[in-house]
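Fold it.
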Amino acid sequence: MLVVDDEPMVCEVVTAYLERDGYRVSVASDGKAAVEMFDSVRPDLVVLDVMLPELDGFGVLSELRRRADVPVILLTARTDETDRVLGLELGADDYVVKPFSPRELSARVRSVLRRARPAKPELGRLEYDELEIDHATREVICRGDVVELTPKEFDLLAFLAGSPRQVFSRGQLLERVWDSSADYQDPSTVTVHIRRLRRKLEANLEEPRWLHTVWGVGYRFEP
């Protein structure tokens, strides 16, 4: 576990709670140190403050995403939705607004780690026109090319494609794909993942072929 925050008190309290839960914790106090430490520590999860010296949390998150698909929980004193969406766009798995309860953070760490475990592979291969989804190998081929997806992007695509034309709300997708709920995770997480999937799969973002928005309801996969 890697905790990145320039406030010693925050690091001390978070470390104490995580170690109490049985995690081994490393601490970095600025963005550049965090990136360097990540390469040597290779943590299972990163608790990352947004406001950091040297390199801010968004910059650190971008660097981490180039290296691995490690789960990241952002800590932020900002309540503006734009910052939260930016964090999700960059690949954050969850965020906690300061000041926060260490007990809540511990619960979110457990939840994110649970969701990050690879889904149990299902036998079978789905083929829709120029899109192929292989559950056994967790491989996606679109128009003849292998598409690089994160584990959660694959899980979301496979779930929707497994129930073609059925509409799922963001809340239902949080429950079924993330094993979470809107009480613990921002529903915009689903929106961001749909957007990223479309960028990787759809030839025309204005008129998606497979991933359709049902306004006011949710999303469906069109076979």
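The helical segments are 8-20, 31-41, 57-67, 81-89, 102-116, 151-161, 170-177, 188-201.
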